[in-house]
Design brief:
Elements (H helix, E strand, L loop, with lengths): L7 E5 L7 H11 L3 E6 L5 H10 L5 E3 L5 H15 L4 E4 L18 H22 L7 E7 L11 H21 L4 E8 L13 H11 L8 H12 L10 E4 L11 H8 L1
Parallel strand pairs: 1-2, 1-4, 2-3, 4-5, 5-6, 6-7
Helix pairs in contact: 1-7, 3-4, 4-5
The structure holds nicotinamide-adenine-dinucleotide.
């Protein structure tokens, strides 16, 4: 018997096999959930469809989270096919390249607002549509990164979007508690994915995370998937409004011995 037998999980944000959303979808399916995938645009279909088929997905639906009509269509299709929803995964982020690098003080208003809209406000848009389908309560989760709480070079607009996402998580949790819906954010350590490729110096960031985390290890999509499984299941039944880290402990480190770091980086 699986932890998620009989549950329906809708996962937004699978672009390819390296996506964190894919690690999550696999973990949820492994424990018995029926998975519905939603991907951003038509050209991703050829990558997403074979992945979905490999875990028995019946529904794979295109939707850009900035389109209310496309989101309505996704939730209508879930309702028609399954009549309910138990788990919602938001694994989505976007910022244009100029809004990630350069001086923070030069960040463009348009670039910042677009990043916040697609990466954070969309969680409200998805949650509002999910609530009526989560008739027996449910679990909503999103993906954040510690650039929301500590300054990380080249995350500019995304860092602010993640701070907004974490605040939205808290406010949604407070509001949706009356419907027995839990809302949490997973703060994942750095992982090589399509989106991460847009961050200048990401390779160095990975190396730094590895050598300075207490466990001297990087995090994988499957590590995040297992935390998502916990959050989707009844094991986390009294946990809501939290930001939970899966980063080999990297976020707790305030200072690293410079000489030891130099030796490890050699
Ligand atoms: P990814 O590129 O595989 O996933 C990002 C997804 O967002 C893609 O599927 C993309 O199509 C989707 N997306 C972008 N704009 C969209 C839109 N307008 N409508 C619908 N979907 C849209 O990269 P990933 O690293 O798996 O990112 C998933 C989540 O994990 C993001 O929220 C990211 O910020 C977060 N995260 C990533 C890392 C990392 O190091 N990779 C660390 C912590 C958190």
């Amino acid at each position: 018997m699986g932890l998620l037998d009989g549950k329906i999980a809708l996962v937004f944000g699978v672009a390819n096999k390296n996506s964190i959303g894919w690690g999550i979808a696999k973990a949820l399916q492994r424990e018995g959930a029926t998975i519905v995938l939603s991907y951003a645009m038509d050209r991703l279909e050829k990558r997403v469809r074979p992945l979905g088929e490999s875990i028995g997905c019946e529904l794979m639906l295109q939707a850009d989270v900035s389109s209310g009509d496309e989101l309505d269509a996704v939730f209508a299709a879930v309702e028609e096919q399954y009549g309910k929803l138990d788990v919602l995964v938001h694994s989505i982020a976007f910022a244009d390249r100029e809004s990630l690098g350069g001086r923070f003080v030069e960040l463009s208003r348009a670039g910042l607002l677009a990043a916040i809209d697609i990466s954070a406000v969309s969680l409200i848009e998805l949650s509002r549509r999910a609530e009526p389908l989560m008739k027996d309560g449910g679990s909503i989760m999103s993906l954040t990164y510690n650039a929301s709480r500590q300054v990380i070079p080249n995350y500019n607009a995304m860092a602010i979007a993640k701070a907004a996402l974490e605040a939205i998580t808290m406010y949604l949790a407070a509001d949706l508690g009356q419907s027995k819906i839990r809302v949490n954010a997973i703060s994942a350590g750095a992982i090589k994915t399509l989106s991460a490729g847009g961050i200048a110096g990401f390779r160095d960031l990975l190396k730094y995370a590895e050598v300075t985390s207490p466990m001297n290890e990087l995090v994988s999509q499957d590590d995040v998937g297992d935390l998502a499984l916990f959050l989707a299941s009844d094991l986390s039944r009294r946990i809501t409004g939290e930001v939970i880290y899966v980063d080999a402990g990297h976020n707790i480190m305030g200072y690293t011995d410079v000489e030891a770091l130099a030796r490890q980086l050699d």
